[in-house]
Amino acid sequence: MIYDVIIIGFGKAGKTLAASLAKQNKKIALIEKSEKMYGGTCINVGCIPTKFLREKAHQVANEEGGFDEKAEAYKRAIEDKNTLVTMLRGKNYDKLNQFENITIYHGEASFESENKVNVEMQDEKIVLEGNQIFINTGATPNTPPIEGIQGNAYVHTSETLLENRNLPKQLCIIGAGYIGLEIASMYHNFGSEVTVIQREEGFLPKEDKDIADSIKEIMTKKGICFELGVQNIRVEENEVVFTKNNTEYRKEADAILVATGRKPNTMGLNLDSIGVDMDARGAIVVDEYLHTSVPNIWAMGDVTGEAQYTYLSLDDYRIIEGALSVGESAVNKVPYTRQTRKNIPYSVFLDTPYARVGMNEKEAKERNIPIRVLKMPVAAIPKAQVLKRTEGMLKAIVHKDTDKILGVMLLCEESYEMINVVKMAMDYNADASQLKNQIFTHPTMTEALNDLFSM
Ligand SMILES: Cc1cc2nc3c(=O)[nH]c(=O)nc-3n(C[C@H](O)[C@H](O)[C@H](O)COP(=O)(O)OP(=O)(O)OC[C@H]3O[C@@H](n4cnc5c(N)ncnc54)[C@H](O)[C@@H]3O)c2cc1C
Ligand SMILES: NC(=O)c1ccc[n+]([C@@H]2O[C@H](COP(=O)([O-])OP(=O)(O)OC[C@H]3O[C@@H](n4cnc5c(N)ncnc54)[C@H](O)[C@@H]3O)[C@@H](O)[C@H]2O)c1
Known about the structure:
Blueprint lengths: L1 E7 L3 H12 L4 E5 L8 H4 L2 H15 L5 H31 L4 E5 L1 E6 L2 E5 L4 E11 L3 E3 L13 E2 L1 H4 L8 E5 L3 H13 L2 E5 L11 H14 L2 E3 L3 E6 L2 E6 L2 E6 L2 E4 L3 E3 L6 H4 L22 E3 L10 H17 L19 E3 L5 E5 L2 H6 L4 E7 L4 H6 L5 E7 L5 E7 L3 H13 L4 H5 L11 H5 L3
Parallel strand pairs: 1-2, 1-6, 2-3, 6-17, 8-15, 9-10, 9-15, 10-11
Antiparallel strand pairs: 4-5, 5-6, 7-16, 12-13, 13-14, 18-19, 19-22, 20-21, 21-22
Helix pairs in contact: 1-9, 3-4, 3-6
The structure holds flavin-adenine dinucleotide and nicotinamide-adenine-dinucleotide (NAD).
Nicotinamide-adenine-dinucleotide binds next to helix 6 and strand 18.
């Protein structure tokens, strides 16, 4: 079968591109290897299930009851999460399936040549031919060579842990990145006793020390235990064994989560044989318009090794849409590319959420930029008092000479909403004084930006 466009992977960029090109009357094949992944990582095993469970966990933390009651509430939360995910998966499938010119194939794709893709389906193997091919295969949990984790029923990835209906009394998490910390916060609220283990001594090493210390202090105060700078991690059945200062420790757990990063999903695509370049981590190398090294093949989302966020995958779709609309001969005139993309914000959905955009103090000093550092405690925000969520701090980095906002770090309730306002202000090159004097509704967390920029 011959298509105008083949899209491999039902991720955020892929599904959005499919709908858009279908409206332009292109004949499209979309290939997804798992029926449980229609809609991609975000809605099935990533952002949506974790943020749904985070809300449920928050409710459970405020309810009376011992472990057994909490375990029941957890089981119901997992069932509710599954119901939500099933509904979203169905909607995602139907949204594309309604187009007469989109065919969804359930099977694993691999390249036969530059414009031929094999699809290994349950009962048959077919070959599709396409003029333009877009790879959107995402990323998959990175399993480090830790002794004792392979084939161990106590050991989970985030995907299998969130399928487990039994609340672990003790949860041990290896890896203190986004997934490790978000799940630590969430399971602590559900009622698990949580320990987070990390090889590196430094906690959240990319963040400013005052921010990282404050996050750790908040989590420790709630009762989450951290073991940082540990060596020789191994797992023996339901125990995580490690050494610290030459002493061996054993941590028993009902569940062990390995959250040590996610690697680009390129294995099995047969990219080498058709000349698509990959880097040492197996990520597809792309230029600013998301071309791969083969002219008719593009890649987008996590598989390109870019920071792994759903909104960046969506933004990759925007870049491709822009490039396709002008055609290859004029592609270098497209104003919006990966190179011009700027001020990428992020949020870590901890119990006290953390959000950041732009440069922090450490980075500004490394680059010898003259700065003003503005800080204020969250307890000074009236809305934080209303919410009874007074822990945390706000911090801004402002250019001393130009008054431009270089970066903002928000460790407070609702920071994941507030950060988008700052991102927009930075995108429009606002001065710090403009946020200082901006009208914001009251009482809100966002109005604290008036005070932060008055510091
Ligand atoms: C637990 C967790 C929480 C997260 N929380 C957040 C969050 O709060 N906010 C945020 O922005 N991001 C979050 N992320 C990251 C976010 O989910 C990803 O960055 C995003 O979903 C990546 O989208 P994508 O378009 O690159 O591909 P994906 O959505 O990963 O889609 C790729 C698809 O390709 C399919 N596929 C792979 N290989 C093949 C093949 N050979 N043939 C056919 N199909 C194939 C896969 O099955 C998959 O469905 C989270 C991730 C995880 C794991
Ligand atoms: N809120 C969000 O936007 C959100 C939430 C969850 C996940 N994500 C995305 O998913 C990606 C994956 O998350 P993650 O937490 O798995 O990765 P990560 O890269 O954020 O953190 C990995 C952690 O594992 C540790 N580690 C690595 N190898 C190890 C080993 N062999 N032994 C012990 N520790 C080891 C690292 O030091 C680090 O602390 C993130 O990069 C993020 O982009 C985003």
